[in-house]
TrEMBL record:
Pfam families: Cupin_2. Keywords: Dioxygenase, Oxidoreductase. The lineage of its organism: Bacteria, Bacillati, Actinomycetota, Actinomycetes, Micrococcales. InterPro entries: Cupin_2, GDO-like, RmlC-like_jellyroll, RmlC_Cupin_sf. Gene3D superfamilies: Jelly Rolls. Residues 92-157, 259-323 form the Cupin type-2 domain. It comes from the Bacteria. This is Gentisate 1,2-dioxygenase. SUPFAM superfamilies: RmlC-like cupins. Coiled coil: none annotated.
Length: 351
């Protein structure tokens, strides 16, 4: 048989594979790649670029009539949807006097208040939000927003929608008649009940997420800075993880959150890990080196560090940088997929 005949025969073979909806493993790139193959890149969303677009949306869409949520999602430049492969972040704006009606869904959400103040109601508890507060809306928790203040309220949203969609597990429903939900607890009741490092002795919390609906920034920042001053790393900064006070685990099943301080003029250690991470700048300014490229940031910017990318943060002179971050790390841990390194020589840790 000539080589031409052989090539024709092979072409016919591959065509028949296609028709049978099978593929030859030896033709698929990356099936046993030595390292992760990514469909996401590092990127910074600058508040100076996106806040004006968000404010323009006030004239484009009415809250209540045309949409339940005036929000701009951040799509990674290499993805159609999702800031990373598991997480989506974005900014949301509510005007004074507006309300965003109650709904609930299987994806989990966190919010980080950046401007203004107002209420998110979570399963009947009105939660008052101020700058830097972390507020949880866990899976299937009813949530709505009320804004009684005088200036627009803007926060960072973070959700696990790309992950949940990927599992074919997204469900959502509106509250009765598209209204606000009925209040059944006092303001910040979960903080009063669980925020003192105590849990009720005779009442068991069996849900998969934290019983705290809010982690006030005032408390979180004080805790971080106290830890940093007493036991942290004076030159490279320190991080603390927000936890479920019942289990010590992540605040919600798919997302864990951190608060990090990098002293002014200093740089953090360098890390890389399989989970992706979205950082939001609460204080200070600086830049991060991600896989050798520089990404500048200042207050209210957020940026994504994709899986398995080396990164380190540099804080500018003038003030310490405080970075909030959320990570899809809890998704990796149960399946032995967590892999992380700290430069330069720390061994790989795999659970
Ligand atoms: Fe929602």
């Amino acid at each position: 048989m000539t080589s031409n005949n052989s090539a024709e025969k092979n072409a016919d073979y591959y065509e028949r594979l296609k028709a049978a909806h099978v593929a030859a493993l030896w033709t698929i790139p990356g099936t046993l790649a030595a390292e992760p193959t990514l469909d996401e890149v590092p990127y910074v969303w600058h508040a100076t670029d996106v806040f004006p677009l968000l404010r323009e949306a006030i004239d484009v869409v009415d809250l209540g009539d045309e949409t339940d949520r005036r929000a701009l999602n951040a799509s990674n430049p290499k993805r159609i949807f999702g800031t990373s492969h598991n997480l989506v972040a974005g900014y949301q704006l509510v005007l004074p006097g507006e309300t965003a009606p109650a709904h609930r869904h299987s994806p989990s959400a966190i919010r980080l208040l950046l401007e203004g103040s107002g209420h998110t109601t979570v399963d009947g508890e009105p939660v008052f939000m101020e700058r830097g507060d972390l507020v949880l809306t866990p899976p299937y928790a009813w949530h709505d927003h009320r804004h009684e203040g005088t200036v627009p309220m803007i926060w960072l949203d973070g959700l696990d929608v790309p992950f949940v969609r990927g599992q074919h597990a997204q469900f959502a429903e509106e509250y009765e008649n598209g209204e606000l939900q009925a209040l059944n607890q006092g303001e910040d009741a979960s903080v009063a009940r669980y925020g003192a490092g105590m849990i009720p002795a005779e009442r068991e919390w069996t849900k998969s997420y934290s019983p705290l609906n809010k982690y006030p920034y005032k408390t979180s920042k004080a805790s971080l800075l106290n830890f940093h001053a007493s036991e942290g790393q004076p030159s490279t900064g320190s991080s603390m993880e927000y936890v479920n006070p019942i289990t010590g685990g992540p605040v919600i099943p798919t997302i864990t959150c951190f608060l990090t301080v990098v002293p002014e003029g200093q740089k953090s250690k360098a890390y890389r890990h399989t989970p992706s991470k979205v950082f939001c700048v609460l204080e200070g300014s600086g830049y991060s080196i991600i896989n050798g490229e520089r990404y500048d940031w200042e207050e209210n910017d957020f940026f994504v560090v994709p899986s398995w990318h080396w990164y380190e943060h540099h804080a500018n002179e003038g003030s310490d940088a405080i970075l909030f971050s959320m990570s899809d790390r809890p998704i990796y841990e149960p399946f032995g997929l967590l892999r992380e390194q700290v430069a330069p020589d720390a061994p790989v840790k795999a659970s």
